[in-house]
């Protein structure tokens, strides 16, 4: 009887395991059957910027594009702001669970905002929308060296106690859960922020920061999701990428 060589058996087993893992790996910018059943929806299809526009514009600014299955921003320090104006969803959301991945060139800066109001009375997204901060580990000046302005923080309001951020150019995972004013941020699977909007403590907190200059900041219960493109930190060209953007309404 023919006897298989042990090394050959090991090689076959390894190849089988590798193929199985590839088969089980989820393709970027797709939903699993279970995610679909649970009510998740893609906010980015991996091919174009359908469903998005730049703030106060009808289409995305020209510095936003799709590259290799990711939304990419590429900009310099100068130029026309409408070209890199913050990207916002066409739709508005109230109670939701939002997940996405991002990466950047070293020392760049950005953020994910929510409850953004697009009324003509507001010139910028951050006049109304709270932000989950994006900043490179240690080298984004001054943000990565200032409490409340590091990656994963509720920008300029609440700081996480640990930076669970991967340095550029590695991918990072963000999750924002907003449920009837209860806000939770997760960075790379770790909860970094847990707070409540709209109550007296929230109003006092906002009043102690620069956001007091915008009386409607953090007051809306529904609004757009926004990817920030207007920060100019880091070496040029400044590049940011976003992918696997999905949302489940609660």
UniProtKB/TrEMBL annotation:
Lineage top rank: taxon: Bacteria
Keywords: Signal
A Pfam family: 3keto-disac_hyd
ATP-binding found in the keyword field: no
Stretches assigned to the 3-keto-alpha-glucoside-1,2-lyase/3-keto-2-hydroxy-glucal hydratase domain: 39-248
Signal peptide: 1-25
InterPro entries registered for this protein in UniProt: AL/BT2_dom
Protein name: DUF1080 domain-containing protein
Species this chain originates from: Dyella lipolytica
């Amino acid at each position: 009887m023919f006897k298989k060589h042990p090394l050959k058996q090991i090689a076959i087993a390894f190849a089988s395991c590798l193929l199985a893992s590839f088969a089980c790996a989820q393709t970027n910018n797709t939903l699993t059957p279970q995610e679909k059943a649970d009510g998740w929806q893609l906010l980015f299809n991996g091919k174009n910027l359908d469903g998005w526009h730049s703030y106060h514009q009808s289409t995305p600014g020209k510095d936003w594009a799709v590259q290799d299955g990711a939304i990419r921003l590429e900009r310099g320090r100068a130029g026309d702001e409408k070209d890199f104006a913050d990207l916002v969803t066409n739709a508005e959301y109230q109670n939701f669970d939002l997940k996405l991945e991002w990466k950047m060139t070293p020392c760049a800066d950005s953020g994910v905002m929510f409850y953004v109001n697009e009324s003509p009375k507001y010139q910028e997204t951050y006049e109304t929308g709270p932000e989950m901060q994006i900043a490179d580990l240690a080298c984004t000046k001054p943000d990565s060296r200032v409490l409340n302005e590091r990656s994963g923080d509720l920008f300029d309001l609440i700081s996480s106690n640990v930076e669970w951020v991967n340095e550029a150019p590695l991918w990072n995972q963000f999750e924002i859960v907003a449920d009837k004013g209860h806000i939770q941020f997760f960075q790379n699977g770790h909860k970094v922020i847990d707070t409540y909007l709209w109550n007296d403590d929230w109003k006092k907190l906002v009043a102690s920061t620069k956001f007091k200059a915008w009386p409607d900041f953090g007051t809306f219960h529904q609004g757009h999701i926004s990817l920030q493109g207007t920060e100019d930190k880091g070496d040029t060209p400044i590049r940011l990428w976003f992918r696997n953007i999905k949302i489940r309404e609660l």
